[in-house]
């Protein structure tokens, strides 16, 4: 829990971040509302957009513990006791997994809320080295390269991939 103490100092900034994410989520959620088929939607204590915005804010702030994040939310954002209990919140997040994943992907496409992007490359071998001289299908397209991590030669392409700090693919070439 000690790694999260620096987030509790500026409550106004966190509420401003939550409001920005909430407006984005509520606008995007109307596009995928038909895919969220659930019973008893009229009986929920918190709307789906609130749950998704809270979950995304927790991921952006770097919380890895669901318990610590719920304690932080009830202590800083919903101090009047109007938020769900922890087990209900976690079940709702699991039920809304499709929507959360889709909205995180939309955030990644727009380039919002990313601190950094990691670039990595890996070989994509098309055939085994023993068959290199017999396979003529990719001749002139694929090249022979050396994969230093596996210490072997390969016949194929090299993939370069950019991944955001949230683990979403950003670009490849």
From TrEMBL:
Protein name: Transposase DDE domain-containing protein
Organism: Geobacillus subterraneus
A Pfam match: DDE_Tnp_1_3
Domain Transposase DDE: 113-167
Top-level division of the source organism's lineage: Bacteria
């Amino acid at each position: 829990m000690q790694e999260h103490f620096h987030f509790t100092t500026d409550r106004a900034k966190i509420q401003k971040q939550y409001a920005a994410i909430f407006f984005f989520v509520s606008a995007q959620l109307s596009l995928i509302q038909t895919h969220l088929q659930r019973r008893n939607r009229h009986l929920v204590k918190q709307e789906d957009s609130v749950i998704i915005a809270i979950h995304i804010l927790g991921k952006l702030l770097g919380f890895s513990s669901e318990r610590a994040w719920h304690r932080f939310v009830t202590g800083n954002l919903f101090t009047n006791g109007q938020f769900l209990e922890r087990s209900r919140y976690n079940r709702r997040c699991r039920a809304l997994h499709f929507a959360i994943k889709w909205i995180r992907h939309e955030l990644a496409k727009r380039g919002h809320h990313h601190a950094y992007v990691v670039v990595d490359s890996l070989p994509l071998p098309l055939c085994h080295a023993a068959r290199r001289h017999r396979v003529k299908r990719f001749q002139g397209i694929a090249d022979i390269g050396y994969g230093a991590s596996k210490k072997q030669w390969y016949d194929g392409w090299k993939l370069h991939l950019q991944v955001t700090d949230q683990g979403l693919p950003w670009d490849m070439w």
